[in-house]
């Protein structure tokens, strides 16, 4: 274990950034040419364009298009060092961050800290649902969902049992926010357009897709008008939109949900279940909040000051999905603008010796919300302006291309979207058994190792913050 905390040579102000999502990456890039040293820590080696994960899951884009290497993105920024590891501890008093990769620690000493660790999937206390209904928060999730979706059709092709075939061709998406709506729409297009005539024993047009949500409509933040338009478009694609319904059970066989108006329960047999309902901030938020003496809300978001700092620690910034401030939504724009604001604030402090009391408050500029429903059809809400249909789809394309990282990724994505518009084929539907089973296999391996009091490198590398440390490790 490292005994002396790491500081870059040169004696410059050292900024540690936790997380290389939108908030962390935009903060790091803002420090280019600034008189500071930056260390960015992330548990993966890539920056994830999370809003496009559903396109990886449904075979439109490959993972490389939406997840470029962090090191390659920041290669030309000489004042940035990248550390791949899971943050295990933050000491606000000692100004240190401890990151771990496979049981090997690196302790970082910071002058300023930006925490942009994002959020994970929330199952609202029913974490056992995750075994059968993966979320949509990582590349691993998207690849597993792709394997589950394609596997359902493959299994349906070879079964002789009509009821089992019906179960295999039933897909349930839980949560009717942008991710759920986009995913349900793409599943419908896959079944009715992409896979049409590719199977001999099944008719993929018989696929049943359910979109279940506890709210009264889809896309609640978009308002009633756009929500109704999106629902009608989904229903025209063959998606069954089921509002005002609470999922009470998810198991191997299917999903049970309760009508919140009548309390009537319905069980739908389904092989492929996908969870996109609710998020929970990284547990690092509570870890910081407890030290700073501030509160977290039910989703684990930290109550921050107007300058995005925490309590009395005016050198510790929290940005993105982890903050509870002025009811800001958990969207990419909040993270981007928050990361840039934190970076500008630190630069101003270093270069102009601006005191925390003189900092302007974080002022979020709402650039609107977008969701693609299907090919040539998206809904867009920008303040009071509401756009839908083909124009909304074009706006969606332009904005997402604008925020993708790298010319190649933009070019490939634009080409893929154009090709998908004129052809029913999808060229990224490869799926492996490893993608399908790895997450649950690791979970079962961990359970076995818990009994033996050991940890393999495979499990240690997948332990997240708050999941404990290891006593006796087996050989790497």
CATH class of the largest domain: Alpha Beta
Largest sheet: 6 strands, mixed
Query: What name does CATH use for the topology of the largest domain?
Result: FAD/NAD(P)-binding domain
Shape descriptor reads globular
Low-pLDDT segments: none
Instruction: Trace the largest sheet across and list its strands.
Output: 3-2-1-7-19-18
Number of strands: 25
Oligomer: single chain
Tell me the domain tally.
Answer: 2
Overall pLDDT confidence: 94
Give helix % range. Answer: 25-40%
Describe this entry's structure for a reader.
By secondary structure, the chain is of the alpha/beta class. The chain folds into two domains: 188 residues, FAD/NAD(P)-binding domain (3-Layer(bba) Sandwich), CATH 3.50.50.60; 151 residues, FAD/NAD(P)-binding domain. Helices cover 34% and strands 24% of the residues. The chain is built from 14 helices and 25 strands. The strands form eight sheets. It has a six-stranded mixed beta sheet, with helices on both faces. It has a four-stranded parallel beta sheet with strand order 11-10-9-15. The protein has a three-stranded antiparallel beta sheet with strand order 4-5-6. Helix 5 packs antiparallel against helix 6 and helix 5 crosses helix 13. The protein starts with 12 loop residues before the first strand and ends with a strand. The model has no long low-confidence stretch (mean pLDDT 94).
Brief digest:
It is built from 14 helices and 25 strands.
